[in-house]
């Protein structure tokens, strides 16, 4: 099968059988898992004992062979098997006098290179990009450009685009080139870099949700440490949501909207997001018709909705007139985007204190206080039912085991049996922190309007600060820090690390798209303009053609990658067509 190799174990020891066990290199402090018993060889017939097992190829493995007599360890081998490879492990005695045992790993048939489809897909997309660049160069030729404009008859759409999400006007000079003039008109109303950032995160999220070619690094990590693509994209989406909150509320307040009216909009939008998450986008549909018995209450949209409610209300209630315009006197001008909002910081710090107290001080039955592990076979199997510690316990206590996610990512490597929801209650606190840091990025854009160097330098400063905090919390270690990076728990170190990267990525996109105008944000700009529609649409139509079809070989990364990239590309095309037709779904 995919991500597996065949291992033939030949036991040439006449006196004893063998017990074969394995340990994944990605499983921290785990117990060895029994794979097979290899019978002893038949000395009279000179026939070795044989056992055939399938081994995982996603991560390095440690194979342990113990003799059936006295359970003595005979040999231990560390090896990273290749997909669809065929291997033999030959166990024999080198010397009858010393009874020295040798274990030799032999490659009978070499593995395939399962990463070649990624290289091929990359070359295909680079070819498409090259064609688009050549086409853009042709567009600079006056006769060609005039002919294309005459045929397409483009209409101005940006004045209708999500009008609630305004952004500071820019006063940059506009080139006489019609293409640049069209883009400058858009920038007067909205920063393209924000939609590009959102669209980039969304496109990767769609690709990952569709399967990511079934590659392990496009799946959620089992527990601590390695930051796979799914862990990065959701946090970026939360971050840019916070940035948009700052810009949109500022825009609406400038236009004279009352705080009471805006609070009503915030409540309604949050309610719709939560409702859509529970009823429309619910993974428990795979268990049959949705009913209260198996309704998953937490979820991605639910967490986004609640986070939006808290952060937007916090910004609305404590925003100060004249703060972003610079009319208020500040004791420290360098902190003008922070000091006027000190009540917000107090509130966020209080939330973090609550998270720390619940995580490390709440007694959890049968588990050590402050436990942050995956349970199952982790921690040498001492706490099999303690998955997620306090976070898992709170969800199971308040929501019930049947109303949370039933197949956490830790169940594969750590063989956990307890349900655990990565979008649970306790982790929402740190999601609010992530959105609040994105809100801070929006305030920087507002306070330093058109001051590109100031904006980018402050993005760098915030990134460095978050990086330092992450280094302290994790001790620059995967497992040994005070608070390891963990997306399932949404630990503080995870938030600070992701916000460090988010500030840097936003800086790069802002520089390329809005400052230097070297990139229009295409194609990510278009799904960023219709993010809710694309997200819900890709979930609802996931199992429908042309987003999914019956494969000839379901054990092929190439076929899965082709299907998943095709589906993701289709949503980018759909979002572009909707953009051209001025169709934007907002709630």
UniProtKB/TrEMBL annotation:
Domain of life: Eukaryota
Coiled-coil ranges from the UniProt annotation: none
Listed InterPro entries: HGSNAT_cat
UniProt keyword terms in alphabetical order: Membrane, Transferase, Transmembrane, Transmembrane helix
Keyword set includes Electron transport: no
One GO molecular-function entry: transferase activity
Transmembrane spans: 115-138, 197-217, 237-254, 266-285, 305-323, 344-364, 425-448, 455-473, 493-512, 524-541, 561-579
Protein name: HGNAT acetyltransferase
Record organism: Haliaeetus albicilla (White-tailed sea-eagle)
